[in-house]
Amino acid sequence: TRCVASVVRTGDNAAEVTVAWPDGGNRVISFRDGAPTGSNSRQEFRAEREGTLNLIRIGLSERFEIIDAVAFGD
Q: How far apart are CA 54 and CA 35, in angstroms?
């Protein structure tokens, strides 16, 4: 499902991407040094890259695909 996202850039190669779910919840994903580094969840955080696409998994059920241009405006 596509979700609405907002971005706050917090410095060079750093950003906070907030993904809003249709049911009213959200997830904040942190990017540092040009890569995803964590979230506001206590669930396990895993990330890998394919080119400029960041494939992010949080826990067993959350999956996000965030391109660098969303996080960094490139």
A: 8
Each residue's pLDDT tens digit in the chain (74 positions)?
Answer: 788 999 999 888 899 999 999 888 999 999 999 899 999 999 999 999 999 999 999 999 999 999 999 998 86
Strands 26-32 and 53-58: unpaired
What is the residue whose two structure tokens read 């919840």?
A: 25
Is the backbone of residue 44 left (phi > 0), alpha (psi -120 to 50) or beta? beta
Looking up tokens 């040094």 gives 33
Please give the model's pTM, rounded to 2 decimal places.
0.91
Q: Answer whether 48's CB lies under 8 Å from 40's CB.
A: no
Give the residue among 24, 49, 46, 25 at the shortest CA–CA distance from 35. Answer: 49
53: its two tokens: 């696409």
